[in-house]
Amino acid sequence: MLKKILVANRGEIACRVLRTCKRLGIATVAVYSDADASAPHVAMADEAVRIGPPPVRDSYLVIHAIVEAARATGADGIHPGYGLLSENQAFAEAVVAAGVTFIGPPPAVLHAFGDKILARDHARGAGVFPPPGTGGPVDPADVEAAQRAAESIGFPLLVKAAGGGGGIGMQVVTDPGKLSRALTACSDRGRAAFGDPRVYMERYIERPRHIEVQVLCDGQGGAIALGERECSAQRRHQKIVEETPSPAAFFQGAAGEVRRKELHDSALRVVTAAGYVGAGTVEFVAAESGELFFLEVNARLQVEHCVTEMCTGLDLVEHQIRIASGEPLAPEVRGHTYRGHAVEARLYAEDPAKKFAPQPGRITALRWPAAGDDLRIETGVAEGLEVTPFYDPLLAKIVAHGPTRDEAIARLDQALAETTIELTGPAGPAATNLAFLRQILQDGDFRSGQYDTRFAEALAAGKKAG
């Protein structure tokens, strides 16, 4: 087992990893920027190292600073959390070169799945198919070739950044006359966000559902799918409410169970063919018919991993650490059982009435409901702290479990009703999405389980999807 782990992240995920390390008796190191000097994750760790000023490019994305912090503190493992450097091949290589264990997939796997075009090719090779689209990148300057490729795919279609993630560098195009502009915009966004201007096109699935499968692979021949998560409640192509198992109609009944198993098997084929090691998520998009297409692999822990933990009783961070320490899949992983239903709501400092614009400010009041076996509060903030514009405005994840889906939703709604958070921005009170999360949970389309990725934004705009 690793002896000392540096957590190369911040906020709630850093706190989440630190808690598991402490339970396992592993010494911990936090890193922090000047903006996070008083953050909870810094206080939780046994040691903490400053790595730079507030902007992520000058702190949390500085590879040599993080590796040097591990060297200086004697950390023998680095957990990257999610986001930031978690899927960065160069970071994983630098960690390994420093003689430190990277708690994640090997660099070659990060390369294969970090490039969305390569990932699509890899999935096809494993017999798991993405939506029809271009086989390689599209040159935004070659308008005629792009139009021919688009006509063969059909409209509406998606333009996507090859190095993208989190909905960045992605646009739906319904009008052929707007294709060129979308290609250029996505290419520019990909260059700015990922240093990669390449874009490709694929068919846009009407009324899509976003469904993903949690996997664990030990690199010794052991691989398991730990169920699927429904992630279709989104804004700006990013998730805000997730649940497991998926309530989609095509997963119901005996035929639905067959389809669910096929989905899990497809996910395992994709990752095992790549020599995957650790925790990961294989993402799919589903058409109304239930036809499922490969989207991508997130080669890291997902934000929404907590719902899987609530239904399996497993600590995925613990098993990431055990796998990175050279252990095979534990008996409790191989013999896991799924219990009940879990739903997670992401509480953000953002204003749904203003297209979910971030709302920086100081937290002037904060009260959480009492956690327990049926409720988890995952947070990295505290009263008095500043929510800055430098980082993602996620405040907390509130996760509820129940014997049935209706009971899990009711428990989560109750927890949100018992949550108090007040933000004061430069110009006065700042908004959160707390009330909007309750609106989602109480909506008839969500309650029925028959919602898609357009649902949440339509609800916020006052015009339901339909």
TrEMBL record:
Domain (Biotin carboxylation) ranges: 1-461
Key words of the record: ATP-binding, Biotin, Ligase, Nucleotide-binding
InterPro entries: ATP-grasp, BC-like_N, Biotin_carboxylase_complex, Biotin_carboxylation_dom, Biotin_COase_C, CPAse_ATP-bd, PreATP-grasp_dom_sf, Rudment_hybrid_motif
Residue span(s) of domain ATP-grasp: 120-325
Annotated SUPFAM superfamilies: Glutathione synthetase ATP-binding domain-like, PreATP-grasp domain, Rudiment single hybrid motif
EC code: 6.3.4.14
Source domain of life: Bacteria
GO molecular function: ATP binding; biotin carboxylase activity; metal ion binding
Entries under Pfam families matching the protein: Biotin_carb_C, Biotin_carb_N, CPSase_L_D2
Main enzyme class: ligase
Annotated protein name in UniProt: Biotin carboxylase subunit of acetyl-CoA carboxylase
The species this protein was found in: Sorangium cellulosum (strain So ce56)
Name of the coding gene: accC2
